[in-house]
Design a protein that fits this description.
about 300 residues, eight-stranded mixed beta sheet, elongated, transcription regulation, DNA-binding, activator, Probable hydrogen peroxide-inducible genes activator
Length: about 300
C-alpha cells in the first residue's frame, strides 16, 4: 500500500506566513525567504493536500474556505513542534534558553529586582523574558503556552496549575500624615468598616483581596469604596492628597510610601490580613523540576524582605 505524502514543516510555515499577511512579499520579509520559494512551498502544500488554500490575484491574496480552516490547524501543528523543541532543550540543559515569566503589576516593581539579581548570579545562561499583565491575562498566557511561569498571588484553585508558594506578606494601612491611625501597631480590622478606602480598579487581584479583607472585617457590601487608580503609585498619591486611605502589601510599602510623601502607615493587630505570593506553572510541565529548583533559590533570596517565607 502506497504511503500518502505528508506536508513538511517548511510548507506549513510558508502557508501560515501567507495566511497571516495575505501578501507574499510581506510574508517573505517576515520569514526571511524569497517570494518564489514561499510561493513554491504553498503550491507544494496545496498539491499534497489536494485542494486550493489561496486565491491569488495581481493585488492581493485571499484564503479559500478550506484555507481558513486549515490555517488554524497549521498554526497548532507549528506551535506543538515549537513546544516539543523547547521541552527537548529543557531536558538537555536546565536553566538555559528562554524562560517567559509573567508577573502581576502589584508584585513586579517590588520583587523583580530580587528575581533579576538571582538570574544574573546563578543562571547566567537563562534568557529571562518578563511580561507584566493582570492575573486573568497571565493565566490565559500560561494555558496557551505563551508564558512558562507566573509570579502572582494565590490560591488560584485551578487543577491545571501547580503552585509553588514563596511567601506570605501582611497588608499595611496607608493613611495621610497626621491621621489618627498613623503609626499604630495594633489596628483592629474593624477599623476598615468605616474608613474612606481607595482601591485599584477592576481587574486587579489586589482589589479583590482588599475587598475580601473588608468583608471579613464586617464592612457592609454597600459601603462605598472609591476606585480611582490603575496602579499603587497613583493610590498612594491620592492618599497623600487627603482623599482617603488604602491597603498596601508590605513589600510595596518602602518604595511607595517613600515616593508619596506626606504619608504614614499603620499595622494591623495579629493575625494581620495577608496575601500569599507563589510561582505557578502548568501541572505536568516538562520543566517542573527546573521551576521547583528556581522557586527554592528564590525563597532564599527573598528572606531579607519583610515577608514570611513559605516552607
Amino acid at each position: 500500500m502506497k504511503t500518502p505524502r505528508q506536508p513538511t514543516l517548511a510548507q506549513l510555515r510558508a502557508f501560515v506566513a501567507v495566511a497571516e499577511h495575505l501578501h507574499f512579499r510581506d510574508a517573505a520579509a517576515a520569514t526571511g525567504a524569497s517570494q518564489p520559494a514561499l510561493s513554491a512551498a504553498v503550491a507544494a502544500l496545496e498539491e499534497v493536500l489536494g485542494m486550493r488554500l489561496l486565491e491569488r490575484t495581481t493585488r492581493r491574496v485571499l484564503l479559500t474556505q478550506p484555507g481558513e480552516r486549515l490555517a488554524a490547524r497549521a498554526r497548532a501543528v507549528l506551535e506543538a513542534v515549537g513546544e516539543l523543541l523547547e521541552e527537548a532543550d529543557a531536558v538537555r540543559a536546565p536553566f538555559t534558553g528562554a524562560l517567559r515569566l509573567g508577573v502581576i503589576p502589584t508584585v513586579a516593581p517590588y520583587l523583580l529586582p530580587t528575581v533579576l539579581a538571582l538570574v544574573r548570579r546563578r543562571y547566567p545562561d537563562l534568557d529571562l523574558q518578563v511580561h507584566e499583565e493582570p492575573t486573568a491575562a497571565l493565566l490565559d498566557g500560561l494555558a496557551a503556552g505563551r508564558l512558562d511561569l507566573l509570579l502572582l498571588a494565590v490560591p488560584l484553585g485551578l487543577p491545571t496549575i501547580t503552585e509553588l508558594p514563596l511567601f506570605d506578606e501582611d497588608f499595611v494601612l496607608v493613611v495621610p500624615d497626621g491621621h489618627r491611625l498613623a503609626g499604630r501597631e495594633d489596628i483592629p480590622r474593624s477599623e476598615l468598616r468605616e474608613l474612606d478606602l481607595l482601591l485599584l480598579s477592576e481587574g486587579h487581584c489586589l482589589r479583590d483581596q482588599a475587598l475580601d479583607v473588608c468583608r471579613e472585617a464586617g464592612r457592609p457590601d454597600g459601603t462605598p469604596v472609591t476606585t480611582s487608580a490603575a496602579g499603587l503609585s497613583t493610590l498612594v498619591q491620592l492618599v497623600a492628597g487627603g482623599l482617603g486611605t488604602t491597603l498596601l502589601p508590605r513589600t510595596a510599602v518602602r518604595v511607595e510610601v517613600a515616593r508619596g510623601g506626606r504619608l504614614a502607615t499603620g499595622a494591623f493587630r495579629q493575625p494581620a490580613p495577608s496575601r500569599r505570593i507563589a510561582l505557578a506553572m502548568r501541572s505536568g510541565a516538562a520543566r517542573a523540576e527546573e521551576f521547583a529548583a528556581f522557586a527554592g533559590a528564590l525563597r532564599e533570596d527573598l528572606r531579607p524582605l519583610p515577608v514570611r517565607i513559605a516552607d
